[in-house]
Inverse folding.
């Protein structure tokens, strides 16, 4: 074996074959010997960047809950329609619920959002109860609290809708 063949053999071992080279070996008539893709070795550079500490998961969940609460209050409706905060009847007594189903006071949206938020927290507690499967009493307490929160908020929202439509069950 000549010196030139040994050098060529070492070059083949040192570099990895690219996909194009593998194709060229199997089908030399497509590319021919004149078309070669050069092997370029890019230097590994360190990226120097600013390291910013990431916030905790609790802070992220807290921000998400605040965002959901703001969206549930109907902030877009409040900005677009500009409803009054509270209303008054003909006697001058304050009313908290608008008489139409299609419109609402600001306080209605906030109360409904709080009730939906309580219900959402109840569903989260139902999920958390499954994590305490080995501690039966703790799981049962969390489960009962979650079910109570869901049930109470559902009944309160149904009552609000009934009063808005004029079907007050307590009159």
């Amino acid at each position: 074996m000549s010196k030139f063949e040994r050098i060529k053999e070492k070059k083949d071992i040192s570099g990895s074959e690219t996909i194009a080279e593998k194709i060229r070996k199997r089908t030399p008539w497509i590319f021919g010997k004149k078309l070669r893709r050069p092997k370029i070795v890019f230097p590994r550079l360190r990226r120097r960047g600013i390291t910013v500490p990431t916030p905790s998961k609790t802070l992220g969940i807290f921000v998400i809950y605040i965002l959901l609460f703001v969206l549930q209050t109907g902030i877009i409706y409040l900005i677009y329609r500009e409803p009054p905060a509270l209303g008054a009847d003909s006697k001058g007594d304050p009313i908290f619920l608008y008489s139409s189903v299609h419109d609402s006071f600001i306080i209605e949206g906030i109360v409904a959002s709080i009730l939906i938020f309580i219900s959402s927290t109840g569903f989260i507690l139902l999920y958390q109860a499954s994590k305490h499967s080995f501690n039966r009493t703790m799981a049962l307490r969390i489960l009962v609290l979650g079910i109570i929160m869901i049930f109470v908020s559902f009944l309160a929202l149904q009552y609000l809708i009934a009063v808005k439509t004029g079907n007050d069950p307590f009159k």
Notes: The mean pLDDT is 79. The chain has seven helices and two strands.
